[in-house]
Design brief:
210 residues; alpha+beta; OB fold (Dihydrolipoamide Acetyltransferase, E2P); 2 domains; 5 strands
């Protein structure tokens, strides 16, 4: 008899498979990043469809087969409706998904990564978000993801080249999103531009080694 596993997960990517199946990349609370197959989910009559929207937080049930994990139930817990209604926010979460996919490998429970994903999705799901907040959340996610995945930047080296940007990175890594945002709003657009360049450089070095 197949063993059923239950967990919560945020659906980060999806890919069509066979005639009506779909494979979902999900970061789960209990098992880390998983690839889960939903059989016949693209059919209108599928009972799984309602709980498997992209960027949903869902309660999931799956079974482990010989070569793959197959979903048997999915119930939406939070559709992050304000993200889905805003193209700017969707652009941010698509980028978050891409970066996450490139850095986080394999199946392993990681409570800190799980909390980070929930934190940034909850923050983006505010009804009102200005451009400064969207920019902040993107940077907050990237620098903390790099740190938690074992690629924490050498802040002392950045301090030598760009002292102000090093202080910004330190604030991101304080793990308090509201406190960090309040302090970081005072920095100039030029500072944010250089910080983006630093993030891109660091991500490029990390992904080359993944």
């Amino acid at each position: 008899m197949a063993i059923h596993y239950r967990t919560e997960g945020i659906i980060l990517q999806k890919q069509d498979s066979r005639e009506a199946d779909r494979i979902f990349t999900v970061f789960t609370k209990d098992f880390g990043k998983l690839q889960l197959r939903a059989v016949s989910v693209r059919k209108i009559t599928s009972k799984l469809r309602g709980g498997l929207g992209l960027f949903y937080l869902s309660a999931l049930e799956f079974i482990q087969g010989k070569t793959q994990k197959t979903l048997v139930d999915a119930l939406v817990l939070n559709p992050y409706i304000h993200i889905r209604q805003d193209l700017r926010k969707l652009k941010v979460v698509h980028r978050i998904s891409e970066v996450f996919e490139g850095i986080v490998k394999g199946q392993e429970r990681d409570e800190k990564l799980w909390r980070l994903l929930q934190e940034v999705f909850d923050s983006l799901n505010r009804e009102e978000c200005d451009e400064d907040h969207l920019r902040f959340v993107g940077h907050y996610f990237i620098w903390n993801l790099l740190s938690l995945a074992g690629y924490k930047p050498e802040v002392h080296e950045i301090q030598r080249r760009f002292p102000e940007r090093a202080e910004m990175i330190k604030l991101f890594l304080e793990k308090d999103i509201e406190h960090a945002e309040g302090k970081l709003r005072s920095y100039s657009r030029a500072s944010w531009g250089i910080l983006r360049k630093l993030a891109q450089e660091h991500l490029s070095r990390v992904t080359e080694n993944c």
